[in-house]
């Protein structure tokens, strides 16, 4: 049974993960990534939005877990987006240039809309 406190919801190929805060642990993020991979394999999930509204600090190990998920998602032409980022968290992604890889959006709806635009290109 999962021990993480994050809420995970799926609608079609889109999965929204509301990460519990204010600082997500590496263990929690690993469990979330495992759950996302399971949904990709067994429930046809391809796109993932991490809602970071409650997160004030994100350790580099957590970002590493998200990059691992990205490696799983890319062959499926899926995407990972971040929503509701605290300024400090968004800055971390910008400084590391990971904002080019993970789309950063003001809210969940905007992130989900970006997936529709991506699907229209194929």
Automatic annotation (TrEMBL):
<feature type="domain" description="STAS">
    <location>
        <begin position="1"/>
        <end position="115"/>
    </location>
</feature>
<protein>
    <submittedName>
        <fullName>Anti-anti-sigma factor</fullName>
    </submittedName>
</protein>
<dbReference type="InterPro" id="IPR002645">
    <property type="entry name" value="STAS_dom"/>
</dbReference>
<dbReference type="InterPro" id="IPR036513">
    <property type="entry name" value="STAS_dom_sf"/>
</dbReference>
<dbReference type="Pfam" id="PF01740">
    <property type="entry name" value="STAS"/>
</dbReference>
<dbReference type="GO" id="GO:0043856">
    <property type="term" value="F:anti-sigma factor antagonist activity"/>
</dbReference>
């Amino acid at each position: 049974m999962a021990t993480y406190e994050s809420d995970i919801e799926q609608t079609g190929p889109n999965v929204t993960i509301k990460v519990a805060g204010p600082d997500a642990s590496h263990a929690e993020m690993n469990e979330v990534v495992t759950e996302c991979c399971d949904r990709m394999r067994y429930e046809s999930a391809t796109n993932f939005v991490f809602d970071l509204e409650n997160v004030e600090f994100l350790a580099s190990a957590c970002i590493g877990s998200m990059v691992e998920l990205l490696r799983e998602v890319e062959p499926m032409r899926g995407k990972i987006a971040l929503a509701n980022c605290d300024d400090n968290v968004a800055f971390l992604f910008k400084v590391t240039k990971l904002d080019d890889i993970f789309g950063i959006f003001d809210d969940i709806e905007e992130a989900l809309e970006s997936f529709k635009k991506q699907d229209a290109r194929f």
